[in-house]
Design brief:
Blueprint (H helix, E strand, L loop, with lengths): L31 H21 L6 H23 L11 H24 L3 E6 L2 E5 L3 H15 L9 E6 L6 E5 L4 E3 L11 H15 L4 H24 L4 H4 L1 E4 L13 H11 L9 E6 L6 E3 L10 H19 L3 H13 L1
Antiparallel strand pairs: 1-2, 3-4, 4-5, 6-7, 7-8
Helix pairs in contact: 1-2, 3-4, 5-6, 6-9, 6-10
The structure holds zinc ion (ZN).
Length: about 350
Amino acid sequence: MRYETARCLHPECRDNVVPETSHWICRKRRGIQSEIIGCLRDIRVRWYKPKSSDRSLPEGQRRWYGVVQRALKVFLNAAYGVFGFEEFPLYCPPVAESTAAIARYAFKKTVEKARELGVKVLYGDTDSLFIKTEDEEVINELVAWAKKELKLDLELDKRYRYVVFSQRKKNYLGVTDKGVVDVKGLTGKKAHIPKFIKDAFEEMLNILREVKSEEEFEKAKRRSEELIRSKYQALKRGEYSLEDLSFRVMLSKSVERYVKTTPPHVKAAKKLINRGVAVVPGDIITYVKTRDSDGVEPLEFARKDQVDVDKYIEYLTSTFEQVLDALGIDFNKITGVTSLEYFM
Ligand SMILES: [Zn+2]
């Protein structure tokens, strides 16, 4: 279904109605956008995606396939939504509405079928379903059914030992059968965080990775709370090394060429230059966050009493936020009591 095939002019296509809408789709022709998108999807699903997890390939190459695969996914998803965008030359609400309606319909039917097969549906969002079953055969049955009835390729993406769903947002945390902790939307968030916070986070993931039963999960929750409390207190008490609090960012061009904005690492680089330290593009600038007006100090000149502890607590909060939310733990509750103690 595409621009030229939605609500076509053939009277004999009028009864090919999209579920839950008043739109119909041509039976005689296939739209060119549909061909192209279908083709790109096949390329992604049959070539790039399997290659990205092919263990026989070197890691670098696998990661490259992963990047292409994800880029294609973004493009494919956007290719549907764009028909509902007014500025798009082929703006066509029936196409956008029909696409969404078909997706909803397929999703609903799949949930119904899963339940019919005795599978417990835990959670679902747009294009994925979290189901609980002991019987692997049932999943194959569901996949075969979707292929036949909906012409839809369902795929068993991941197996979780356990998953926790947050009550508030579309957020979940799971541990896969391979022991990988999977938090929705977490990837890439940890790129530039100091070792102190990175280590704390790793420690927490290790706690969650070990869980084998519901009882252990409750224990893991308590241990996670303990962990965060101790890290929070360590920050408040100055029990850290400046090295562990430092950010490491590469200077990609000379400091004079940052005109519009001055990112923290460039401010730190300028401070180094002012003190007679030579800095060239390609250097890794190591700095800590401080309470002075610049907000940064190069690691080699920083003193502990300059550290902006509140800033680091903010990083701690934002790093753990998502995981804690999924676990139903309130960061402020953990640290709240402690900060009160500090006043007394
Ligand atoms: Zn037609």
